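**User:** Hello, beginner here. Are you able to go through the protein record under this note? It all follows right here:
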Amino acid sequence: MSIKIKHVSKSFGSFRALSNINLSVQTGELIALLGPSGSGKTSLLRIIAGLEAADEGSILFEDEDITYKNAKERKVGFVFQHYALFRHMTVFENVAYGLKVRPRKVRPTKEEIEEKVNHLLELVKLSAFAKRYPSQLSGGQRQRVALARALAVQPKVLLLDEPFGALDAKVRKELRRWLRRLHDDFHITSIFVTHDQEEALDVADRIVVMNEGRIEQIGSPEEVYENPMSPFVYDFLGNVNIFKGRLHKGKMHIGNFELDAKEYASVSSEEAIGYVRPYQIQIEREIIKDSVPAHIRNIHIIGPLIQLELTREDTGEILEAELTKEYYQSQLFQIGENVYVKPKQLKVYIPEDFSI
């Protein structure tokens, strides 16, 4: 089931939640709507589901305009962050609910319902919990019940609103990989909302990065991470270090050194900002070309990575660097040590880029 969103806008009073949203989702895709709180991602999901009405624009399922159809007619499965399970029903009854309340003409038989529910419980690895109540389950198990219930009615589209947001980090990681495998088995068109960058990068076929009711960028996880189209996308998708300087004919001048900015070969600007990820920072004890002196403030050992917090000697600005454990152990940097820092790769933006 393909989805087309055309020129959708939505306001709540004076607040503009969505502004002229255009998006096409291919049949069988798993799409992540990623952005900070207030970016419009949940509003867009609810409009696709029919739980909210757009002020402008249209929604098409498989080229059929369903803009004015209610949520029930759209045949979507919706999974909420806080499960929304029926507390007085067992796991089996929760999953079977959508099938049992169908009109008599299209309602499966008791045997068919039992067969389908048991199959889904086996799929989500909860067969042994069929007779338990939601209060007797962990958060991760409840979310799997919610997913099984959504899938039981064979929806055309599966929509998930921050489905793992209420879970701890380890369970979240396990469940998102499980969701990816489940999606690959069912091949159902799915859209999920998240503000967790790692979650979107790990699970989605494509990511839609949203900000202030607009789409900033659409692309594969690799595309949006490696080639961010705006400063917002670069900053939102991970930690960054900022180097301020000026731009002149493809060179970024930062203090006493310069770096290549070939994408701006014909541009000059008195204000330019270079973004660089912590793992793209080179640190040496001896002075190297195109580097700045810095002072090591803190060292954090996090599994296989070593995080260094540094202060630039020329500006006093804080920098973050990530080193492999092997390199760190070969150098044995110390807190309080003076070093030289060089960005190995710089993504440069000029003031015009911030107004996209």
About this structure: The longest helix spans residues 169-186. The chain has a mean pLDDT of 90. DSSP finds ten helices and 20 strands in the chain. Residues 31 and 191 are 5 Å apart (CA to CA).
